[in-house]
């Protein structure tokens, strides 16, 4: 066993604090990773606070992880010691079901679903019966070391800064996957609702795909920030602006991480177009089926992305020279960072520099 230090929440109401635990040594097909950077995703906060009612404590969050390979199992072929690699939301899936056979590990149909990088199987053992992964809780990237199956470890292209690559592993692929699935292409008009970690990343990816991008935000200050990044931006409550945009979008993506009304945006879709929701994982207010039926519009959902898409979006960002706007923080400041994320104060993704954790560990010895 390997001694690991992370930051964990012990209860839904507690702050993240240093927490020591053990990981198993890398098996034949596994890779040991020295964690260098980890992005702070809004899901981390939902999970720490048990807002999806499935958190197993203690909870060590973090699923936007970039690190350096320090050890490989004897059967590992894809990675070598010294490689800069990434780990996203998943660290395993059943490999047997129809979805896994198609390469869609993120829609794994096994009773335990896919194995999340932290908080174990998305479906708890109590609900799913036998646990195929033998793990009821997994500990994520807010820690100094990780051991992961090689197939679930991504390659970070050399031209991407490792700290910039981190948020691509969740925010990037979560927005890239639906845009690819619904065929966003050059010349399309794409609307992105919400301008946080996911939204600003979605806008950059859509633009790199050749689309004309409009961001929708509730925050006045973000209008100017969106324009600075080269996007058109509209204030959601600007009824006149929304009216002018009716029936004009080929695809829309909602990245808002909480309950919100989709109806004003359904009106903006062209005939046969799709509004996909990736931010909120909860029931939303019903959409008016008259508006949907009259233009054969669809409202859809999408969950993260599969492994191939995760590698693709990393390579895509490297090729197009794009990446998230990040603010680096020390792990000791993560609780304050959570509050700012909840208030929408971050521009646009916090990334934890794990050197701060290593300094803390060294200081204790
Ligand atoms: Zn995430
Ligand atoms: Zn499966």
From TrEMBL:
<dbReference type="InterPro" id="IPR036291">
    <property type="entry name" value="NAD(P)-bd_dom_sf"/>
</dbReference>
<keyword id="KW-0479">Metal-binding</keyword>
<dbReference type="InterPro" id="IPR002328">
    <property type="entry name" value="ADH_Zn_CS"/>
</dbReference>
<dbReference type="GO" id="GO:0016491">
    <property type="term" value="F:oxidoreductase activity"/>
</dbReference>
<dbReference type="Pfam" id="PF08240">
    <property type="entry name" value="ADH_N"/>
</dbReference>
<comment type="similarity">
    <text>Belongs to the zinc-containing alcohol dehydrogenase family.</text>
</comment>
<dbReference type="InterPro" id="IPR013149">
    <property type="entry name" value="ADH-like_C"/>
</dbReference>
<dbReference type="Pfam" id="PF00107">
    <property type="entry name" value="ADH_zinc_N"/>
</dbReference>
<keyword id="KW-0560">Oxidoreductase</keyword>
<protein>
    <submittedName>
        <fullName>NAD(P)-dependent alcohol dehydrogenase</fullName>
        <ecNumber>1.1.-.-</ecNumber>
    </submittedName>
</protein>
<dbReference type="InterPro" id="IPR011032">
    <property type="entry name" value="GroES-like_sf"/>
</dbReference>
<keyword id="KW-0862">Zinc</keyword>
<dbReference type="InterPro" id="IPR020843">
    <property type="entry name" value="ER"/>
</dbReference>
<feature type="domain" description="Enoyl reductase (ER)">
    <location>
        <begin position="11"/>
        <end position="352"/>
    </location>
</feature>
<dbReference type="InterPro" id="IPR013154">
    <property type="entry name" value="ADH-like_N"/>
</dbReference>
<dbReference type="InterPro" id="IPR047109">
    <property type="entry name" value="CAD-like"/>
</dbReference>
<dbReference type="InterPro" id="IPR029752">
    <property type="entry name" value="D-isomer_DH_CS1"/>
</dbReference>
């Amino acid at each position: 066993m390997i001694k690991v230090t992370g930051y964990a929440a012990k209860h839904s109401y507690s702050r993240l604090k240093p927490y020591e635990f053990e990981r198993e040594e890398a098996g034949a097909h596994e890779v040991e990773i020295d964690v260098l950077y980890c992005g702070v995703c809004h899901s981390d906060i939902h999970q720490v606070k048990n807002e999806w009612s499935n958190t197993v404590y203690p909870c060590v969050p973090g699923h936007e992880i970039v690190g350096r390979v320090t050890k490989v199992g004897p059967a590992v072929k894809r990675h070598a010691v010294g490689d800069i690699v990434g780990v996203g939301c998943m660290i395993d899936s059943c490999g047997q079901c129809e979805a896994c056979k198609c390469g869609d590990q993120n829609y794994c149909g096994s009773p335990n679903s896919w194995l999340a990088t932290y908080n174990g199987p998305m479906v708890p053992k109590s609900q799913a019966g036998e646990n195929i992964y033998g793990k009821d809780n997994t500990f994520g990237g807010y820690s100094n070391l990780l051991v992961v199956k090689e197939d679930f470890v991504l390659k970070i292209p050399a031209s991407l800064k490792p700290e910039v690559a981190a948020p691509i592993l969740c925010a990037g692929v979560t927005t890239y996957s639906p845009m690819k699935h619904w065929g966003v292409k050059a010349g399309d008009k794409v609307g992105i609702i919400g301008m946080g970690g996911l939204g600003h990343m979605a806008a950059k990816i859509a633009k790199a795909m050749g689309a004309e991008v409009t961001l929708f935000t509730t925050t006045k200050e973000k209008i100017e920030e969106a324009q600075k990044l080269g996007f058109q931006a509209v204030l959601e409550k600007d009824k006149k602006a929304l009216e002018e945009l009716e029936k004009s979008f080929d695809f829309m993506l909602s990245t808002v991480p909480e309950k919100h009304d989709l109806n004003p945006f359904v009106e903006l879709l062209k005939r046969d177009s799709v509004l996909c929701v990736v931010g909120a994982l909860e029931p939303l207010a019903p959409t008016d089926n008259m508006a949907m039926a009259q233009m054969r519009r669809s409202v859809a959902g999408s969950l993260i992305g599969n492994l191939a898409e995760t590698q693709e979006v990393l390579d895509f960002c490297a090729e197009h020279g794009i990446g998230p706007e990040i603010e680096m923080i020390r792990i000791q400041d993560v609780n304050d960072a959570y509050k700012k994320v909840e208030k929408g104060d971050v521009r646009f993704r916090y990334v934890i520099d794990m050197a701060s954790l290593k300094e803390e560990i060294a200081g204790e010895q």
